[in-house]
Specification:
Radius of gyration: 21 Å
Largest sheet: 9 strands, mixed
Number of strands: 14
Bound molecules: nicotinamide-adenine-dinucleotide
Distance between the termini: 39 Å
Shape: globular
Structural class: alpha/beta
Strand content: 15-25%
Oligomer: single chain
Order of helices and strands: EHEHHEHEHEHEHHHEEEEEEEHHHE
Number of helices: 12
Length: 387
């Protein structure tokens, strides 16, 4: 059994994330950032020879580059140094069956979004994770930046008073060209196949990240939506844009704007929360800073390197102030927290709270997506999410 120190890192298998996948490198680097995980095996492709070649390219034992998830789980369970957990970043339609198989085998799971194709499957994963008492960490890294975590703390402490309004957006240009009209790469082909990418493409690509960010920072669920789900690109049959009005648990109103088809957009993520007393404003472009404007007071800029931050926020930074940190470190925070939760359970310690996104969050995400699609089908009629 692995201990939480660099001499005995937890042993991780990667599913997906082959040589051409950017997010694969991100996961591997983030997992190994703090020495708490070691990548030892994987299924890096749906083709056996490519999976083995990728394993060799990563310096792994060739035999640990498996042909499929079932054979990997079977072979690793027979090894004394077998895997502790699986990180899944293969195409979207594989997330649910692979997560279910790993949980059923008693493995902990780090799963990229979306965890499933619909809310029913997400609920099924939640039941499996609970029955097995296993971690299922969803890699919504924007909620793991020091300043978004501090924003959450300030909201909970009442720094801006009861929340009245939430503005959240993710504007990007990944689909700003008519990609589907030209020759597509393998990566583009599955994304434009609705059966493989899941409910409404851009929800699963970027929309789920900022829905999670808003709900996580607010500490509240969305109760109802009025949504416009469609595409900016003329003639496109998959969704590249979602605009929605939101209502939150304690009565706050919200606006949600996400698109992958805005030419010039650069992963522009912004969250503004307006309370009775003032505003908290975080932008991904300046991710190390948080703006706090209390009505009638001098505006404040809080930095992730400030000396008086609470210890649980300060530990999310690794680099002295002024030097940039970003998405890789936020991903690494998720891997560190998942490792801590797994190790605590193995040591029979109680984990009071888990700060990383869990399968419970993912169930709410899938409810949100289904409610937006249902609302759009009724011309934007207000649609309630399940309680
Ligand atoms: N969290 C984030 O910020 C973030 C960012 C980008 C992508 N993603 C997620 O990562 C996943 C992959 O996206 P991508 O853009 O890297 O896709 P991609 O098509 O570029 O890469 C997919 C990888 O999975 C491999 N693969 C395909 N089928 C497989 C199978 N059955 N078993 C094992 N491996 C298989 C491919 O060989 C490839 O290496 C998606 O679910 C996406 O939502 C998350």
């Amino acid at each position: 059994m692995s201990n939480l120190n660099s001499a005995h890192p937890l042993r991780l298998a990667i599913v997906g994330g082959g040589p051409t996948s950017w997010i694969g490198g991100q996961h591997r680097r983030a997992a190994q950032f703090d020495g708490l995980w070691q990548v030892v095996a994987g299924v890096f492709s749906s083709q056996a020879d490519r999976s083995r070649d990728a394993a060799v390219g990563l310096g792994l034992e060739p035999a640990r580059g498996y042909a499929d998830v079932a054979s990997m789980i079977a072979a690793e369970s027979l090894r004394e140094d077998g895997i502790d957990a699986v990180a899944i970043m293969s195409p979207n339609d594989t997330h649910y069956p692979y997560s279910a198989a790993a949980l059923d085998a008693g493995l902990d799971v780090i799963c990229d979004k979306p965890v499933s194709s619909n809310a029913a499957e997400a609920r099924d994963l939640a039941a499996r994770a609970q029955a097995r008492n296993r971690v299922l960490c969803v890699t919504h890294a924007y909620s793991a930046y020091p300043m978004t975590r501090y924003m959450k703390q300030l909201v909970a402490e009442g720094a801006i008073g009861p929340v009245r309004m939430v503005q959240v957006e993710y504007i990007q240009s990944g689909l700003a060209k008519p990609i589907e009209q030209g020759p597509m790469t393998d990566s583009q082909r599955w994304k434009f196949d609705a059966d493989r990418s899941g409910l409404a493409l851009s929800f699963s690509a970027i929309g789920c990240h900022v829905q999670h960010l808003a709900c996580n920072v607010l500490g509240q669920k969305i109760t109802a939506v009025s949504a416009d789900v469609g595409s900016l690109m003329p003639g496109r049959t998959v969704t590249d844009t979602i605009l929605a009005n939101l209502r939150f648990e304690h009565g706050a109103r919200g606006q949600y704007t996400i698109t992958q088809a805005a030419a010039g957009g650069e992963n522009d993520i912004r969250l503004r929360i307006y309370g009775e007393r003032g505003l908290l404003d975080w932008s991904h472009r300046e991710s190390g800073y948080l703006h706090l404007n209390i009505e009638g007071e001098t505006a404040r800029v809080i930095g992730r390197g400030d000396v008086n931050l609470p210890a649980d926020i300060a530990r999310l930074s690794r680099t002295p102030r002024g030097h940039p940190e970003g998405l890789l470190e936020a991903f690494a925070n998720l891997y560190r927290e998942a490792a801590e939760a797994i190790t605590a359970r193995r040591n029979d310690q109680t984990v009071e709270t888990t700060s990383f996104p869990t399968i419970t969050d993912a169930v709410h995400t899938m409810d949100f997506i289904e409610a937006c699609i249902a609302s759009h089908a009724r011309n934007g009629e207000w649609t309630n999410l399940p309680n």
